[in-house]
Structure formats: C-alpha cells, structure tokens
Amino acid sequence: ERLGVRLLHRTTRRLALTTLGEIYRDNCRRLVGELADTEAMLSAHARNPRGRLRVTAPMTFGIRHLGAFVARFQERYPEVAVDLTLDDRFLDLVGEGYDLAIRIGRLEDSSLMARRLGGATSRCVAAPAYLARHGVPAHPRDLAHHNCLRYLYTRRPDEWRFTRRGETVTVRVEGSLAANNGDLLREAARAGLGITRLPSFMIARELEDGTLQSLLPDWGGEEIGVFAVHPAHRQTNPALRAFLDALLAHFRRSGGAEIGA
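RE: above sequence
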C-alpha cells in the first residue's frame, strides 16, 4: 500500500511474488548485503584506525607532553597521521578544520565536547637573584611593589587571584613585560627580570633545579583544568576516538590530577 504497487499475488492455495515483487526482493537482498559489507568495513576500520588528525595545543604543553606521546601513539596506530599545531590562542576548531584541541583553563565554547585530562596550579615564581635585590613578597598585596611579568592570553592579565583558608585576594599587578608565550616569561623570570605566574607544568623543572623559587606558599593559586575538546560531529571518527582514549590513559598514568613537567 505504501509503495502503491502490488508485490504479492494471492491464490486460494499460496502467495506468489509479482514481477515487481521479485524486483523489490532482489534489490532488498542487494541492499542488505551492501549494508553488511559496510558494517564489516567500519568495524575493521575501528579496530585499525587510519587517516589524518588535525590537533592543536598550547605551545609549552605540546613541547613538554605531546612529542613522546604522539610517537608512542603512532607505534600502536601507524596508519594515523597527526598534524599538530602549537599555538597558545584558542583556535576555532570547526572553522579551521581541527579534530581535537588541548585547552587549558576555563572552557568557553559549550558546543564542544570535553574530557578532562588533569589539572595544574598557577604559581608565582622568581629567580633567587631577583629576590635578593627586591625582597620576597610575604602577602599577595606585596606584588603591587614588584615587577610582575604577565601572560596575555588570560581573561585579565593584570589581575592575579589567590586563596587561603577561604579568603580570596585579587591583586592588580604591573610590570615591564607582558607576553603571549609562557616560555618567554619563564626565561625572563629565570634571568632575574621579575616575578611571573605560570602553570605548574611549565615551571616544575626550574623549581626542582633551583633556578626559580616558588613564592607565597600559603596562598593557593588558581586551579587550572586541562581538557581535550573536539567538535561533537567528530566523535564517531575511529582515529579520533583512539587518540582521545590514548590521551586519557597517558595522563592517568602520568599522575592524573596534577600534570607536572
């Protein structure tokens, strides 16, 4: 009735296909076969992902964490190529054709799907030589009297926020240098230019070797989430799923909650 043609011919003893019914049956068999072949192909593709992924991540995070990770990932999935763009800006994933991004800090775009990889804590640091000349701040408000090196890709580069036992203090800071790259700020601080504030994973090595000193230990810096985000329509991509699963497993093994150097 829906097709508007007769597919069956009924007699008193049996049902028989009409000529159009036979054509319909044969075409349906062909379509079912093609569907089974397609599902088998997709299943094989999911087991052996292939293709090219476009990924973006912040500069320092990518340098410190993603090179060795991508090498191990491609040992397991040799048919997945990765184009990795390191940029501290939040790029437009959909508009610029990216499959996945590592985002640090507050997530603004609710249209993206996000998985938390871990976190970091922002810390104020300076070189021992700078502190010998200018003194060690005892309270966040003392930063108003120091040369503060500010990171530009935050919502309020000139405001640093601290917490201690439920107390929150926001300090307006000034200084001779502001930059859009954390590596540059870290190196300027190591050279004794001033105090900077960076995520823990960017300064862990320098704190360990003593070239930078952590300040205001009783005052917690901002907790910073580290996320893998991707457009919703990409989630069925087997290569992306494999990459994301590997990322999550990698950072769980690396410590999970606090991402270090």
